[in-house]
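Re: the request from the purification team.
They wanted to know what the chain is likely to look like in 3D before they choose a buffer screen. I agreed to run a prediction and write the result into the notebook, where they can find it.
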Amino acid sequence: MWVISLVILICNVITLSASFLGFKYIPPPSNTETHGRYSTVDLIEAEGYPAETHTVTTADGYILTFHRIPMSRLMAHNPSSTPGPPVLHLHGYESSSAEVVLRGRRNSLGFLLSDQGYDVWLLNFRGNVYSRNHTDLSPDDKFGPFWNFTWWEMGSKDLPRVLEYILDLTGQNKLQIVGHSQGITALYVMLDQHPELSTNISLVSAMAPIAYNSHTQGMLRWTAQFLADIPNFASQSEFLAPSEALNSISSKYCQENSTTQTACYNFLFLVTGFDLEQQDRSNLVNQLQHFPAGTSARTIVHFAQMILQDKFQAFDWGEEENIKKYNNTRPPQVDLGRATPAQAIYVAPGNDYLVQPEDYNRLVAELPNVVRLHIVNYTMWNHQDFLTAIDAPKILYPHIIEEMNRYR
């Protein structure tokens, strides 16, 4: 345990203070390898699929960059091919559009959906490495107003604009949603704040959705009180952005066959649940070049508040500030009854530290239109396994695709 504790200490010190120590933020690479990383577009094109980059500006000025796989690698060679029904993927906490194209065309959900004929869109929420831009605000201002957001704004402001853009560009009136973890958190906020958009979603495929999380285990639970006590001014900052420090550490210590790779996994597992058997050790460094992808510190504070308060609600500023912002001493709660699109829920039996059975059963009970609840048939399945597990293409993705094809 002392090894794990040391890794935690070192990683926290480096990531929380990297900018003050002079480590430079690493911007996303542009179609060429940079700092040992490849962009989402590079990852897609390397497998022979067409890739596109799109941008939108939200009502509050955030410039979002997202990616598209308009058709499969085989269809791309047919001049008469046209994109199929659109599906939008919503990434999880500290992640990006790369999360569903990192394991090659035979093992990555993004490519598998493309091969099924879907027009695959991959969102990047505000503040991550691809969407670190604004019409007026600078993300480089420490404790600046750019970082005044959580997953609440991702859902209430980012998602409506992106849905509008995709439907307008494709000429479709409906799309499907696939998402992991915080991506689905944001979706439920959107459906609560903009219930009229429910009619534009034919199916939600939710992997490890976070709505209620008071039964969270592991590191996030242990640190929840500390995080919730962080002053509001201090949480208005960037957290875990890609940096030279993180890049160097992961490249040196997390390589396959290195004596320290297990420590790298153990650090991740303290958050997600332990499951070394399902990990592709040759791909860990590649994964860590894309995760963490950056967000606001306030986002993780918001999750900590949820754990302690046992509520699915907007950010709690304290009674005085809540009155100013919400005209109430308490933040508004998400009404899951407004999430009326068909929902297919995919969860772990109990080893996902962030989505425990007591919490996802409560979510399912409040959703009005759950068409499928699938518990992965693997006891040790954890939170990251939905994206990284060796057996995900065999024991999870076929179920997701089967259900999606019913709603094409």
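For the purification team: DSSP finds 17 helices and ten strands in the chain.
Please add any questions underneath this entry.
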